[in-house]
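Review form for a predicted model. The reviewer records the input and the model, then writes brief findings.
Reviewer: anonymous (R2)
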Amino acid sequence: MKPYPTYKDSGIEWIGEIPKDWEVKKLKYFDSVIMGQSPDSEDCNKDRIGISFLQGNADFSSTNPIPSVWCEKPNKTAEEDDILLSVREPVGAVNIAEQTYGIGRGLCAIRPK
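Model under review:
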């Protein structure tokens, strides 16, 4: 049994059918995508100095990250409730930021506008 009563073709082959009342829109029109950027290595530490820093999905759990590195001068940050998406192999892993994190090149943050 499908969870929606009626479906339609999305027009995108790899997506297939979507619920009839849904619209297909490009992410850039309703969310901001913040691509991670790695800081200088001397700004990172394991002594919990600065803010928690995520380089990729190695720190992901089933829902929220568990950081192992901190950074005093992050170049890019994710804010609370941002969706964290792995953009390096393995691509597609997802977590939710429950606090502010510095994010490196292996991640992007998706934030509603």
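Findings: The chain has a mean pLDDT of 94.
Further findings: The chain has one domain: 26-112.
Recommendation: see findings above.
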